[in-house]
Amino acid sequence: MTETHDRGMPSEGAPTEAAHRRAHTRARDLERYAGLFAERTRVMRSSAMRDLMEITARPEVISLAGGLPDTSTFPPESFAAQMTRIAQESSAEALQYGPTEGFAETKECVREVMRAEGMDPDPDDVIVTTGGQQAIDLVAKTLVDPGDVVIAEAPTYPGAVPVFCSYEAETLQVPLDDEGMRVDELETLLDRLAAGGRRPKFIYSVPSFQNPAGVTMSAQRRRRLVEIARERELLVVEDNPYGLLRYEGEAPDPLYKLEGGDYVIYLGTLSKILSPGIRLGWLCAPPPVMEKIVLGKQAADLCTSTLTQYFVREYFAEGNWLNYVDDLRGIYRSRRDAMLEALERFLPRQATWSRPHGGLFCWATLPGYIDTTDLLAKALRENVAFVPGAAAYTDGRGGSAMRLNFSASGEDEIREGIRRIGSVIDEQVQLFETITGEHRTTSVPPASSARPPGRAGPGEGGAADGPGDVLPFRRHAQ
Ligand SMILES: Cc1ncc(COP(=O)(O)O)c(C=O)c1O
Fold first, then answer.
1. How far is the CA of 242 from the centre of ligand 1 (A)?
2. Averaged over 375-391, what is the pLDDT?
3. Which atom of ligand 1 sits closest to the CA of residue 360?
């Protein structure tokens, strides 16, 4: 049988031979195009989550890897009614180009979402973007020259890393603890940079229910961060996809509200509270920055999907969006609780993890001798996936950490997924202890036997001993 492969080359024989030929063709192609690539492609990085999507789409895989909201919770009949209304009443307009900044009506929806968190931006300070991801990209495109310093949290949003890399930023990361970014360490870093005559282009932070660490920056640190930005005239980029997904506790004010919008660029998205498929995000920036961002967006995609913006307008006009967010909160709170219980039951004693008050992720840190990138290969053989921690760092740290998502799977799946992860970790722990002769102090119980309750309370079980990649989380840190 003859198969057609890359570039229509016929290929016969055993699959291994075909695979070999494909690899050879790719190598030749690479050689052929190598001289054409821009310098920046050397430092471009792929997105760990995107890479994993193909594998985790297989139905037998329990994926705790993506940052996917559960879109099956959105009522299909409501979606159908909204799209039908658009087709009947605004077909030509919805199928047309729109303004680069977004429609005034879309900006009104965005302002409604921001008002729910106590912010009220001027519509002229808002631009509608193609997801929150484009907002990050536009900020970097507008502000970063090759070699410029960008400051991010350690760990940071894994999807921001490829953006900062592709604009050739030097990304420096400031540690987090269970109160968010260590602003004291930030000040030390800023002093060190200033001593060398350097100034970061911006400080990127996800203050609420951070992706990937799940922690929330305390009110006190937020106030100090905003003061630092003012005192030193630095821009802070506040990325806030999860602020409304709070399952417990009081919400601290967003940085944008505290600061007023002179030194804070605010990024938002409907991806986690409505749908990531519609690709609708936004950005608020001071007018001079906004002017450049609009130029950047014109070059990127002219405008955000008009059809999407019509859908959002219809959806918000129904006046139920906050009820839907409320439903999501209830569903995700139970899933978070299922994950926390499963972590307690199935992870070894040496592991620590965050206890998020909202958002979509837990962050677990394992003993330093476990490399979670290697562990992922083993986990995939057991049909379970997570994001290895290294994806959240630009400097090779994070090797013994992992990000675990609890929004995209049901409670039983979460428990089973964590059980499988626990058992591949346990194999590694046993192997290590056999090789080193260390006394074995833990084991993962079989699925049917629960650990005694209260085995590790708040503050117990110190951080694991990873090579500088460990958040100083206590067990059960927020
Ligand atoms: C912190 C953060 N910023 C931005 C994004 C991207 O959002 P969007 O899907 O709207 O592009 C995500 C998605 O997971 C995120 O977690």
1. 9
2. 95
3. 16
